[in-house]
Amino acid sequence: MTALTESTTPTTRGGRSRWLALYTLCAGMLMIVLDVTVVNVALPAIQDDLGFTSSSLAWVVNSYLIAFGGLLLLAGRLGDLLGRRNIFTAGLVVFTIASVLCGLATSQEVLVIARFVQGVGGALTSAVILGMIVTLFPEPREQAKAIGVYAFVASAGGSIGLLAGGVLTQAINWHWIFFVNLPIGILTAVAGVRLIEKDKRLGSGGGTDVPGAVLITAALMLGVFTIVEPAAELGWTAGRTVLLGLLTVALLAGFVVREATAANPLVPLRIFRSRNLTGANLVQALSSSGMFGIFFLGSLYLQRVLGYDALEIGLAFLPTTLVMGLLSVKYSEKLVTRFGPRRPLIAGLALVTLGLVLFTQAPVGGSYVVHVLPVLTLLGLGGGIAFPALMGLAMADVPPEDAGLASGLIGTTAEVGAALGLAVLATLAATNTTGPTELQALTNGYHFAFAVAAAIVAAAVAIAYFLMRPART
Questions:
Q1: Residue 324 falls inside a structural domain
Q2: Predicted model pTM
Q3: Is the same domain home to 257 and 386?
């Protein structure tokens, strides 16, 4: 790597080992991120094969998101208590075994349960990665570059998943979108044990906050469930939706009270004294809501309105991956070093907002080059600039003993934001389908959802500008 200099590590071998460890962590993250979107492309094939109804098919995605978003925060704290490498490896094992079960599934029940277990493994694996990267690369310039690589994998992996899902589903069958995780999971787990040093259990001195863990896990799972099930199916004001929403709020309130009084809290409230960490989590939740929902709805626009097949959808999103990868890996570290993380974050989010606004103009007979490619290019530019800076800001003021917690927290807000954004935007698109023809009605619904997504990301821009502090380069 060109980033290795005489000042980075005592020996070249040591420097190489750290970068190899980074690539191992990113391989684990890529496998997790791919699985979120690779399934979206294969949903029609899964529905035909296993006989899902349109409403029950959503559980193939939602069961994963509920487990993943609900357990991330607990998994991050377990990394501090039990060792991050141990949790990372355990998560890979659980995720890989669950992937095989998903691929072997011949019934709806088995697939949904296996997807839930996949979410558990994904949470364990991904919750500790950012904390491990910060520990591996304490020097600011190297850390910015390493976080840029991680941010590219975490954000661009979604569009890679669309391409991989299209290729595997059309070339073989939908089972292989899960079977392909077996060799990747085994190789990554072995590489992790060999390349990642065993870390100290920094937070194990005062025990585990079991009541706090139960409260926050139950609140997050119930909250995501409320959005993806009764709110989407029955409406936001339905009695069941309101009741479950109030119960979620009560659980969250109980969690805050518990954390304020516990001797060794799961989430010490002092961590939110950092304006940058608090702002980063708010920005992460909002930007994930807009971006993840657009990947899903954008693929539906290409499929249902423009008539693209699974492979064509994956290829259509490839520019986003390429642009984001180039910026994240090659230029994000230079931008953060030159301007600090706050200004690139604001500029990147503004580009994402502009891209979403442009997507509201894509017509029924839209052209890919004129109406889709500029949008995906702007999303790639904005994501490639913003997300590495966001990760750096989120972890900048975090002490080593809380690195796993902060990593799990930023991951939790991303996944919960994605689940909420997907549910809200999909519901808005479905309930605003009015027009003289079926295609025009679908397009109008997508336009409304794209406009709401743009407003959500614009709110993230405002939070980044007014709440987050400039950091010294």
A1: yes
A2: 0.74
A3: no
